[in-house]
Amino acid sequence: MIESGPQAPERVLGAAVQYNGEIFRGITHAHAFEQLREQLHVTNPELTEGTDGDIKLFITRLQAANPDLVLDGFATSVGRFVSRAEALQIAEQAEQVRNDATPNGELHSEDLAA
Predict the structure, then answer these.
(1) How far apart are the C-alpha atoms of 100 and 43, rounded to whole Å?
(2) Which of 12, 21, 58, 101 has the most CB atoms around it within 10 Å of its CB?
(3) CA–CA separation, 95 vs 73, rounded Å?
């Protein structure tokens, strides 16, 4: 029997977006959505018309068009995609939340300590 040492506690790695089961990571959620947009080669005029590169408008349109396929949350050190609420719990246990952060029940990328 092979014994393994104690596992490191789960940590939040960073912002992530899950689209149709695939995870896109970024420094912020906007960065993750930008990776998604690049990977999808989004050309749908309903999603891109008038955005002029505005990632927030693209995100709003993409989530409205695909509410069950697009989720924003966080990636963890054990390879899981978790909601903002679960990410907050993990980050608090791992002491990753900035002292001056006020997350209000959900983690935001700017709440993570460097």
Answers:
(1) 40
(2) 12
(3) 18
